[in-house]
Amino acid sequence: MIMFIVEANTDDLTQLARSTDEGHLKPLIEKVYPLEQARQAYERLSEGHLRGKIVLSI
């Protein structure tokens, strides 16, 4: 098993947010599910072979 610890860096996160807002960085999203469809989102995630992230909208 491989374990690692991630420490959030405010400056880096701010730069990522700025780059996203300016359109320089675009996240790849497979599909957005409403929170009520979390089970379907999980099932899709379990299928694998995604072309982006699964997003739950609240």
Our count of helices gives 2
Strand order of the largest sheet: 1-2
Q: Structural class of the helix and strand makeup?
A: alpha+beta
Shape: extended
The total of beta strands comes to 2
Major pleated sheet: 2 strands, parallel
Summarize the structure.
This protein is α+β, with helices and mostly antiparallel strands. The protein is 38% helix and 19% strand.
Can you tell me about this structure?
- There is one protein chain.
- It contains two helices and two strands.
- The protein has a domain of 32 residues.
- Strands 1-2 form a two-stranded parallel ribbon.
- Helix 2 links the parallel strand 1 and strand 2.
- It is extended and about 35 Å long.
- It is 38% helix and 19% strand.
- The chain is α+β, with helices and mostly antiparallel strands and 58 residues long.
Topology (elements, then pairings):
Layout: H1 10-21, E1 29-34, H2 38-47, E2 53-57
Parallel strand pairs: 1-2
Protein name: Alcohol dehydrogenase-like C-terminal domain-containing protein
Q: Which key features would you list for this structure?
A:
alpha+beta; 38% helix; 58 residues; single chain
